[in-house]
Amino acid sequence: MRRGKGMSDRTRKINFELDALWEIPLGVLSFLFSRVLRAVLTNLGRYYNPMNKQEQPEWQTISAEFLAKPIKLLWAMSRARWNLHSLIGLAGPFNVTESLSINVSEIAQSTPTWTAVFYTLGDYTTHANISSLTISGENEWETVKLPPGRYLVGLRHYHWSDPLTLPTIRANGQEALAAKQLAAPPDANRFYRDLIQRQGVIHACLNGYVYPLLRFRQWLPARFVRDVFLPVPNPETQFHYGALKTGERLQIQLAANLLETHEIFFSLYNRFCFPLEWYPVTEETHLAKTCDRKAVFIIRVHPKSADATFPTETLKLTTLL
Q: Whole-angstrom Cα distance, residue 184 to residue 179?
């Protein structure tokens, strides 16, 4: 990621090194804490998760109500980065011996772009995913073969309609969960803006490593940075990410004609990964607002069709002071 002019290279280097003196040690401590906390939450989930005893599957959506309990917010922030551009439904648990099937025609009534992820209850390991890009669109149902176990399904909707229909799901060929219709206004994800009001010391300790991870990423293996920062990325999406200091702003230069074949989503988070703002990028050269605090960002580049390919250089990022 390029740096814009406005500060001498020497001054920039001194500031960089001064930041590193305290950001890196605290980041290492935060990273170790986050791994311990994730392990504790995973083990607690195996033994104390109410869904472990739940036999009747149900539909839920990620919402203010879903995240109302502090433990749920902590768990969510320990597992992945907020996808602020999709409306997310969760279905389960399902007792699977052979397969899960989803009525994709019902999904298509609510959104043209979607992704369904199948993962095990307990360790939350992803076993499969399907999407509007991977199916033919000719079948009413799509079936995914899975190893025996208890599963959850995460369904991401983009450009959803109101009302939205969460689809019927079959387990092992038998209907296990009926479709559910719910109100889904265009601003259904506005609750994310209020999450920062719940930020506490434990959240700072949990994700305090994220800013130094991205700010000093050139000293780390690229694969390590990606796997830590994006633990469960959508395989169909190309990700670009980085850190911004107070007073910096990001310029995004898209490849020519990229907007014709791909959607570009920009998300900005504070340094502890609480959402600040998010929106689609709709111009080839976009200049984001100046940051009033240390922050991190994700740019998601998602194909509009199955035959869309990524150019050699999708975009260029420049930070300006």
A: 15
Tokens, residue 255: 């490849």
DSSP letters of 177-205? E--EEE---TTGGGGGGGGGGG--HHHHH
Answer positive or negative: Cα dihedral of 104, 106, 107, 109: positive
Distance CA(178)–CA(6), nearest Å, equals 58
Closest CA to 84 of 299, 278, 215, 294: 278
Q: What is the DSSP letter of 167?
A: P
Res 13: pLDDT: 56
Rg (CA), the chain: 21
> 183-191, long-range: CB within 8 Å, 24+ apart, which pairs?
184/87, 184/110, 184/157, 184/160, 186/162, 188/63, 188/87, 188/160, 189/84, 189/85, 189/87, 191/63, 191/64, 191/67
Q: Which two tokens stand for residue 1?
A: 């990621």
Using CA atoms, how far residue 6 sits from 9, 297, 319, in Å, is 9, 22, 11
51 compared with 147, residue with greater pLDDT: 147
How many Cβ atoms sit within 10 Å of the Cβ of residue 166?
Answer: 25
Give the pLDDT confidence of 201-231 residue by residue, as tens digits.
999 999 999 999 999 999 999 999 999 999 8
Q: Measured between alpha carbons, how far is 316 from 245 in angstroms, rounded to an integer?
A: 18
Token pair, residue 252, equals 């995004």
Strands (E), 63-184: 87-96, 99-103, 113-120, 126-131, 141-145, 149-158, 164-166, 169-171, 174-177, 180-182
d(CA 307, CA 304): 9
Residue 54 per-residue DSSP state:
-
Structure confidence by residue, pLDDT tens digits, 147-183: 999 999 999 999 999 999 999 999 999 999 999 999 9
Going by their DSSP bridges, the two strands 315-320 and 2-3 should be labelled as: parallel
Question: What pLDDT, in 10s, does the model give residues 242-267?
Answer: 999 999 999 999 999 999 999 999 99
